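If you are new to this repository, start here. Below is one unmodified record pulled from the training split, so you can see the exact layout before writing a loader.
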Amino acid sequence: MAWNFRVDGLSAPLLVCVTSLSALLVIYSISFMRWDAKLVSSGPYRPRFCAFLAFQSFAMTLFIASEDLGQLLVGWGLLGVGTYLLTGFYAQKSGVAQTANAGFVTNRIADALLLLAVILCFVQTDSMRFNDVFDVLAENSGQSVEFLGMAWNTAELLSALFVLAACIRAGQVVFHTWLVDAADAPLPAVAMVTALTTFIAAGFLLLRMAPILLLAENAMWLLTAIGAVSAIFAALVACAQSDVSRALVFVAASQMGFLLTVLGLGLFQFALLDLLAFSVSQALLWLSVGAVVKAASDVRELKMLHGFRRNLPFSCTTMVIAALAAAGFGIPFSQIGITGFVAKDAAIAVSHADGIVWALMLAASLISFAVWRLVFRIFWGAPATQDIAEPSLLMRTCIGLLAVAALLSSIGPGAAMLKAAA
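And here is the target side for that same chain:
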C-alpha cells in the first residue's frame, strides 16, 4: 500500500484550519501551563503536555490528508490514543485515570465499527482507494451482503457503520457519558479534543464518505435522528451545568449534533462550512474561558465566577465575540455575519422542506442560550472579590487572533461557499 496524501476541496480548508488553530493552542499552552499545582511534583510536565498536543495535531493531519481507507483508519486510531493521553493528563487527581479509561473504551467501540466498515469495503470492492471504492459501490448500489445472519444492502450497512462510528466518536447521545469527567482535564487539552480534533474527525469522516451515504436513505435518516436528538439533549444539559468546562463540552456536543443533522439532510457544502465555523468558535470559547479560569486560580464553578467584566475587559470582549460566533450572529437575508452565520442560516432555510427545521431552530436557540448564560454569569453580576488580572501577553495574542478569525472568516470564504452551493 503506497503512502500518499490527498489534498482536495474537502481536506485543504480543514488542514489549514486545524493546523493553524492547533499551533495557536500549543503556543497558548506554553503560558497557560506555566504553573500547575496539580503537576508541580511530576517533573517537567509542560513539554510533555505540548508534545501530547502536537501528537494529536499530527494524528488529525494524517487523518484528514488520508489517501485511502487504510491511512484513514490509522489516523482515526491515533486520534483515540491522543484523546486518552490528553484527558488523562491529570492522572494524579482522583478519578481521572478511570475517566480516561472509560473514554478510551468508548473510542475503541468507534474504532471497531470503522475497522469493520473498512474490511467490508475492501471485501466488496477489492480496493482501499476512495475513488475506486465509491465507483464500485455506485455501480452495485443494489448489492446485498450477509451480516449477523441477515441480508443487508451493502451501501446501507456501510453507511450505518460509518454513522455509528462518527456519532460515538463525537460523544452523541448515549455515548456522551465520558465527556462529563473528561472536562476536568487541562482546558487546552479539552479544547484540542473537542474543538480541533476528535469531534472534527467525526464530521470529516462522514463528509469523506458522502458518496456512500448518498446511496443509503435509511442511514441518512438515522444520522439525522441521532444528530437532532443529541443537539437538543446536549444543549439542555449544558444549560444546567454549574461547571464552566463541562458546560462548554456539552455545548460542543450539541453543535456537533447540529452538524450531524445537517449532514443527514445531505447538505454537505453547508456542513463543511459549519465544521470550519465550529472549530473557530469553539477554540475561541475555550481559550477565552481558559484565560478566566487561569486568572481565577483554576476555579471552574460558575457560582465562584462572577463580575469579572471590569477586571478582565479583554477576556470579556473575546468571550462576547465567541458567543456571537457560536450563536451564528449576522444580518438576516444577507451573507454578512460572524463565523457560523452563513452555514446555520442556510441550513435552517433549506431544511424547512425536510420538516426538521424546528429541531434545528430549537437546537440553535438552546446553544446560543447556553453560551450567553456563561457570558453573563462570568462577567456580570456582583463585583468580583478576588484580585485577578488579565492573562499573559502570549495568551492574549492567541485569543486575539482567534477573535479576528471569528469576525472575518464568514465574510469571504463563507459567502463564496454559499454562492457555490446555491
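Two things worth knowing about this chain: The radius of gyration is 21 Å. The chain is about 70% helix and 0% strand.
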